[in-house]
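Technical annex, item 7. During the second reporting period the consortium partners agreed on a shared format for inverse folding records so that results from different sites could be compared directly. Each record opens with the tokenized structure and is followed by the designed sequence. A conforming record, contributed by the partner at site C, is shown below for reference.
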């Protein structure tokens, strides 16, 4: 898994849109507002992506053939997932994450992405 850890407005969702087009994998998002914004951005960038999926849609129609998903705003998705499973609002009070995940905070996305030898997705550095 690759983590894009950038500030607000830093291009995280834009990167995911390019990855979605490249891999043909859907983006899992927290809610309909995020889904609409992802679709709007994909149109502006002229990207052909699979339809993004909200947590509620994912829960109702868990696809059995899906072999991977991209997650936009992971903490929002996790919060919504917990709320949906618990059937009410449950606050996340703390969380941890292993450093085994690759941070992409210093990479600049160009329009081209290539698959590297280890099935990760390399972004051209500028």
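Designed sequence (site C submission):
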């Amino acid at each position: 898994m690759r983590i894009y850890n950038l500030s607000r407005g830093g291009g995280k969702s834009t990167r995911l849109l390019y990855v979605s087009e490249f891999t043909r994998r859907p983006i899992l998002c927290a809610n309909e507002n995020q889904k609409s914004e992802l679709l709007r951005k994909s149109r502006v960038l002229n990207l052909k992506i699979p339809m993004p999926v909200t947590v509620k849609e994912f829960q109702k129609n868990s696809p059995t053939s899906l072999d991977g998903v991209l997650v936009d705003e992971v903490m929002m998705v996790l919060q919504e997932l917990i709320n949906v499973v618990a059937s009410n609002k449950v606050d996340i009070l703390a969380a941890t994450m292993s450093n085994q995940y690759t941070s992409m905070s210093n990479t600049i996305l160009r329009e081209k992405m290539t698959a590297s030898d280890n099935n990760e997705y390399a972004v051209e550095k500028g």
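The domain at 2-123 is CATH 3.40.50 (Rossmann fold). The radius of gyration is 15 Å. All partners now use this format for quarterly exchanges.
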